[in-house]
Batch of 4 targets.
Target 1
Amino acid sequence: MKYDVTVIGSGPGGYVAAIRAAQLGMKVAIIERYNTLGGTCLNVGCIPSKALLDSSEHYHAAHERFATHGIELKDLKVNMPQMIRRKNDVVDQNVKGIAFLMKKNKIDVYHGHGSFVNANKIRIAKSDGSHEEIETEKIIIATGSKPITPAGFNYDKKRVITSTEALNIDKVPKRMIIIGGGVIGLELGSVFGRLGTEIEVVEYLDRIIPGMDGDCGKELMKSLKKLGVKFHLGHKVVGVTATKTGVKVEVEERDKDNRFTLEADYCLVAIGRRPYTDNLGLENVGIQTDDKGRIPVNAHLETAVPGIYAIGDVIQGAMLAHKAEEEGVFVAEVITGQKPHIDYNLIPGVVYTWPEVAGVGQTEEQLKEAGVPYKVGKFPFKALGRSRASMDVDGMVKVLAHQETDEILGVHMVGPRTADMIAEAVALMEFRASAEDAARMSHAHPTYTEAFKEAALAATDNRALHM
């Protein structure tokens, strides 16, 4: 078979690239090494973790808040196997949905490990030991990423685990140690913390979620501490030892001779992810990766080899599903001669804890470093009527605007449903709106989005009305 475009990898970037290419009239193939489509995100990442987050939030609300609402329960307990079954059902529905979209768009799906024979031929090694080759004019590499597991951490998939294994723990652990205070570790720590697990986080830096605005990290830490989560900031892990029933983690305070040992049922390694290009045959076409394993691309997301493109986690930038999707559409349109554009500054980042964390644009730290004159408007959710009604009073909204032009430069939120609220900020910033523009928009009352309006008012000559 010969195709106009072949996509290697069926995660959000890959399957979206395939769909857009098919919409534009190309004959498309997609190669997936696993039995189901959807990549990490749908199978062992975004979707299953959000399913468990929702389940744990329901339990926590029933345990901690229902009585205040006048709802009385008896014999409340966690049925972890059922929670896992529901999560698996959510995943199953989503991956079947992607398979349907492939058929709808007449995209040929190949299951097996794809690798380059040359710039126009892909070899597909199947699980039964057989293989086949397909020819193609263009190729899009969308193979995603894998968790980073240093040898010294003795990752065994049983007691020393990554997010992949954490999604299938069928009994609530008594204690869990999380190495890494980033998005993945805190989301999964939030899941088990709400179910009753004692969580301790070891983070080398002096703050959590380091890629986001500093105030967001501070607000999230306050909320997680209320759950009982303990933090060891400015600490490094020296060694990890697993047994059949538990794990010991040796920790040392950074720059100090202070070493101690933590013990738990599981150790979750969540220190980041690496681009996955293993056995892809890049050397057969002359593509070299950088010092972090990423594939270099130009402004059109084309590699050093004409006609071969790369998107998502295998190239530079944030490892986000929606960033990969935008790049998938971008490349498909570039191939057909269109002139698409991606504003990477306006790709939002989200942490799906509760309260949720969301941000877009520049952080205050970035503005300071760049010497950009700015002003700040903040509004706490505890001052919002809707938040008091729902008992979701943790967090705040922060608007950063240019001191002279009033253009919105960044919006950062910690609070209820901020993962959805951030879209308003993205839309306004796409059209280069000012803080005053946001402040003058009518927001329904009572809603969580009023906090954004109030923060914009605060940034506009300190005009917040309810604070």
Target 2
Amino acid sequence: MNQFDVAVIGSGPGGYVAAIRCAQLGMKTVIIEKEATLGGTCLNVGCIPSKSLLDSSHHYETAVKDFKTHGIDVAGEISVNFSQMIARKREVVSTTVKGIDFLMDKNKITVLRGLGSFEDATHIKVTGPDEQLIEAKHTIIATGSSPGSLPFINVDKERVITSTEALELSEIPKHLVVIGGGVIGLELGQVYRRLGAEVSVIEYADRISPVLDAGLSKELMKVMKKQGVKFYLSHQVMAVERKGDTVAVTANDKKGVAQTFEGDYCLVSVGRKPHTEGLNAAAAGVSLNERGQVEVNSHLQTTAANIYAVGDVVRGTMLAHKAEEEGVLVAEYLAGQKPHIDYNLIPNVIYTWPEVASVGKTEEELKAANVSYKKGQFPMRALGRSRASMDTDGFIKILAHSETDEILGAHMIGARAADLITEAVTAMEFRASAEDLARMSHAHPTYAEAVKEAALAATEDRALHS
């Protein structure tokens, strides 16, 4: 029987990063993956392929709408070669996955293909191509999540689809009905709107992405409506029926009046659920909560002392970078170190264009906690860099404590917000004040100047360019 110091079940960002860090720290490590390729949802059917399609569709939209203004004349009609777009997406995924294979070899991590399930707390049965029974001193559960649905919806994966199928369509929808105005629905909705589809987003809450600062939600919806996406807020979906190539979605508005939306595709994006099927967790003494998540303590240790869990399968936001940080934390904890994660400082990003990013507390959270705060907000349209690139939508908002001036939150919508948010994360990790950020020199012309201006506005309401 093969014996290991650490077994990692699942090879998504949480799993493979945990395995690498364990190996770096001298532990004999094995990673078990039931799918044909490593990388989990993120690399195969999530973060990476969706960003590939977002970038491709953005290039197309820019060519159609903005090339002429930029002085670029293209002979003939600009058209979409959708099959090539999908092929490029597959190539990006393939290259990225091969990179994970390389990292496993480089770090001398054993890779076993098959379903990993517990026989007991120290023995794992692998069922599949590499079928065997292994022994592990410690195990890290990193099995991730899968698309959620509603009990009455039959997701046939043909016309009623999840994000997985939406990344592999053979045609551009005529009318894509999206159930759920969260990250997945907005990103994929924007992809297909750019390519010519009519897109209708049905959201149960009274605003899209309700976990965001309300100002970001409002601004993002305004921009996407300008791009042609239709929104139906405070609508409760009651039924989804497929008739041939048509899908009818019936939803009640806040007054209880039913409305039917007909499209050729319906994307169900109502969140994700932790994936624990087949683990046989009970056999190892690992408890799950009522939501199906693995129960863990502050060290991400399960109810079985030698077993840990990270990523989407435990509490908290379902983000790849959160899973990575947790994977590193567990590896270092097993090595006797004292790692720490500040969950308040894990940024959240929506990769629409303009991009949306946030970290720390929202205005709503600060008000609910009776925290005295001040805010500085700066519009992207006031930047020379934004005007040069024709990316003038959005703003950056900095929230700081009204007495200490410590930055409590940063909320951004605009070009490259996904990259800009790291400046705020860095500042907040070092307990910086808004004045600290305001006094830092920012290169000109850059989008990052908006961060400085927002910090100036929060410090003494003295933004220089607005």
Target 3
Amino acid sequence: MDIFDKINQDLGSLGRYSEEAHGYYIFPELEGPISNRMKFQGKEKIVWSVNNYLGLANHPDVRKADAEAARDWGMAYPMGARAMSGQTKYHEQLENELAQFVDKKAAYLLNYGYQGIVSIIDALVDRKDVIVYDSEAHACILDGMRLHIGKRFVYPHNDMEKLEKQLQRATKITKETGGGILLITEGVFGMAGDLGHLDKITAFKETYDFRILVDDAHGFGTMGEKGSGTGEHYGVQDKIDLYFGTFAKAMAGIGAFIASNDQKVITYLMYNMRSQIFAKSLPMPMVLGALKRLDMIRTQPEHKQKLWDNTKKLQSGLRKNGFDIGVTESCVTPVFLKGTLAEATHITYDLREKFNIFTSIVVYPVVPKGVIMLRLIPTADHNDEDIELTIDAFSKVKEKLTNQEYPKEEFAKFST
């Protein structure tokens, strides 16, 4: 069959709804400065769908640093990959400051988070090695493992008993192959908001020989007393072999990093990660902008405090009003409802058009069939009015859903 014919017959699990959903439910366009209130289709909405945790995206000090860096350096410098012609003292400074902030000896700056995790996994393991990973690992982790030609074992989400059994299986295999074990989990799981049990996982190192890679995209800058991540929250940062953080959430930027207490491992990754060796260096405005953001995280704890104040108000308010927000222990706030995909579109439409609330909708296959998840990301920019209006709106749409006032089969129509 011709490849294009195959695609035309099946656009994929989400693509099949493109005609009904494009531009509204999928690929919506938010306009205006990044904040708690933005415009959608010309009308102001309370926005809960932007990972701007600390409110730094449109902070005047950040905007000033970004603008000055772009003025002084342009968006092209440095040209070429870092290994060839794209190395600067500022890239190295950012790496050193990131390593220090997350209590590691060394760090390596990455152009992108998703691409970075894929390439880290590819570089770390070979056919003799075994990967053990959580069943709810992010898509970037799954894609990285697809490049691994050795064994990989999954354990049910945060099930420590099943994890130990998989470590036992992996240990038996690596004794035969002479390879090692890489355990991969997340610090904060970005959909449900619960935490990887890093304290219990690292405790297994007393019995089993493995290395642990923690993807802490949602924990970096938000978890722990100083914001250095979920490992700090649990008090086990020193037991994490490879710590990964991204700039796309708390840092409100582009880029990522991998850090370790083993300098040789970081050196190895610098010389063997194909996605970095064969890619252009991160442009200077992004590097200098990241330095500014990191400095603000270190020296201005009020941003994280405001984030958590808003998070606690939002989550406690939702619980008091009878909403199921699962077992979140982070700022990620899921609201679980029961209904069909069509009902989910009507709920989303009502929230946006009647109540001016913009939040992400998550449906099957990300969550089980029959489950609707509305995913809220509180930020330091939100206020009490935002929270009160949102809880009130959610209560009203939940009542309509309970009373079966939404069509179960027909998508909510929208106009652009």
Target 4
Amino acid sequence: MQYFVVMIDYGRRGREAVVDPEITRREVVSRVASGEYKNISFIHEIADRSVEDVTEQILSEAALPEVADTQVDLQADRFDHARDLRKHEAV
């Protein structure tokens, strides 16, 4: 049997351990990525009487890919340049 324990820290209000044997690793990653699980203290994977801390692995899997700013800026710069050229055209 394998399951995950997600410990969520609510600060002064305490902590909550989310334990559901039906949730898969993919589902845990999905919930972290969607923001359903926030303020995570740790994530443990329990399998065959052993416990493994998989917090860093799950958080890195759930991280959104970074979009390079240069792609967006280049497009905006091209539009700005075209607008500037139209402004300075001879009429």
